[in-house]
Design a protein that fits this description.
This protein has 6 helices and 7 strands. The protein is an alpha+beta fold and about 150 residues long.
Amino acid sequence: MSPNPATVDPVRATLEDARALQSLANKSYEIFIPVMDAIPAPMLANYAELVRSHEVWILRTGTTLTASLVLIQQEDHLLIESITVDPDHQGKGCGQLLLNWARCRAEEMGHSELRLYTNVLMARNRAWYQRAGFSETHEEQRGDKHIVHMQLFI
């Protein structure tokens, strides 16, 4: 029996994980295409480049990638570029574990603020981040997507 991915620490992704990261993003975000009438940004990401240039953390169940966290360090904050959880594992604590990991990483880097952005039409995601303590700061149009910026002081 494989361990619950929400009970283990995330590990750094490697270049060998890039294809699985893309598959995970596609599986997790495809439900938003008709909602947004656009392809969600995580489905368009270059995961090999993200792994090379930033921190990408993953959770596995056995050998299967079940969740990921992409962090981009900025001068004055840590940006959560994406949290992705396989739909079959949503609601089991994986997202919360990764969000807590992001808080720890921010503190380790000396940041007191986490930021992220999500599509305005992703109501479920917005509500989840608000329940986690994030507040919405502003909205902007970015290409074919209308996004909302959020922040959390830690």
